[in-house]
Every structure is written in C-alpha cells, then in structure tokens.
Amino acid sequence: MQCSVYNHFAPLDVGIKIGEQKSTTALHFLTVRRIPVLAVILCLIGIPTLSRGSGLPEASYRYRSMLVRESHAVWGLDAPVADFAAQLHQESRWRVQALSPVGAKGLGQAMPATARWLATIDPQLAPVRITSPGWDIRALVVYDHWLWARTNAANDCEHMAKVMRAYNGGLGWLYKDERKARAQGINVAYNFGQLDQVNAGRNQSAFTQNTEYPRLILRKFEPQYIAAGFGRGVCA
Question: Containing H/E element for 21?
Fold first, then answer.
C-alpha cells in the first residue's frame, strides 16, 4: 500500500469477535486540514486510509466496516475482504435497492428463494431482510463460505474463482462442468484457462457470463479494492 494523504479519510473500523464478545476500535473521519501530522503518522505506521478519489462507489466506503466485521465473523481474521468487496461491486455497484430483471435484489443480488434457504443455514440471516445492507453483506459472505467448503482447487485464487462461478451460476452447473472436463482429461484444479473452457450444456451467453464473472471480480476489481485499503485478496 502506498502512503498518500488525501483531504479526508473513511472510518477505520477494526473488529475482533471472540465467542460472543467483540472489541472494536474506531477512528472516525480524520481530515488533513484538522490533523495533518496524525494522518501522516497513520500512513507511515501502516494503518490503512481510504481515498475517496479512487473511483470506487461512495457506498463501498460507507459499508466497509460492516463488510470487514461480517467477513471476519464468518471467515476469520484472514478473510479476503477485498474479494467480497469486489464481488459486491460486480453484483450491484453497492446499490442497496438494485433489482435485476429476474428478481435478484440488494447489494449481493440474492434471489428470494436463495435468501430463504440461506436463513436456514445461518440463524443470523433469519428473518430474511433483502435490501438491508447488513443482511445482504452477511448473506454474501456466508454463501461464499458455504461454497468454499464444497469446492477445491490448486490454490486459493483458483478456488475463489470456482466459488464465484458457483455463486453466479449455481454449484450444480459447476459440478457438471467439472465432470465433463475430467472426462476430457482437463485438470479441473485450475479454473482459469482450463475448467472455464468447458461448457456442460448452458446456452453460450449464460456460460460466457459465468466464466467472465470471476475474471472481473478477481482480476479487475480485486486489485482496486486492495489498493483502496479493503484488505487482502486471494489473487494478489
């Protein structure tokens, strides 16, 4: 991370959850004009500061602390928060009221049936509250974690690519692509350039969208969110 000083910083919210207890330290809205020396010190000692001039949606900064908290709660302190931020970017551009033509809603574009199912695997998602930012964010990281446990790959980057494809197109289709690829002698431990060349039967537009989904998230948007201080990503 490069150390840069801007006119203002987003809130820094670092939370650690152990059992039912959570300790949170928050540093709210320091401005260069008011505390220039402190801002420089924070940069030099490595505390991330977020530039509002990065070109990312303003809402991504608004919900950053919520995303960090839920990611750590579900995935642990080493959670790839930048990947989840990039996924939210791709899904809705961080628009809470986003609605797709097929009925997907909210930040993570959950379908109503999927939302109801998620509430059965995570009690904290009941009752269903699609378009509530907190619910949407937790639902996305919970679903990604569930998919991670049911997929595998050669490394974390390839693994996350499979998770993203399953989130977008369904785990069943990912499994079908893997079976067909194995039958063709393709190494399914690698998504990029291997598994993503095999279509088990979807129409071409759906297949193209599904294979491009992890590329956009992990290769285009992940670096932007890492650079903006959202944490680690698995493909960096």
Answer: strand 21-27
**Could you give phi then psi for residue 211, rounded to 5 degrees?**
-80, -25
Residues 123-141: tens digit of each pLDDT: 999 999 999 999 999 999 9
Between CA 57 and CA 10 the distance in angstroms is 13
Please state, as a whole number, how many other Cβ atoms lie within 10 Å of the Cβ of residue 204.
8
- pTM above threshold 0.85: no
Q: Regarding the domain delimited by 57-227, which CATH topology (the fold level of the hierarchy) does it fall under?
A: Lysozyme (1.10.530)
Cα(1)–Cα(111) distance, integer angstroms: 36
Residue reference for tokens 């690519």:
161
**Domain coordinates in residue numbering, the chain:** 1-53, 57-227
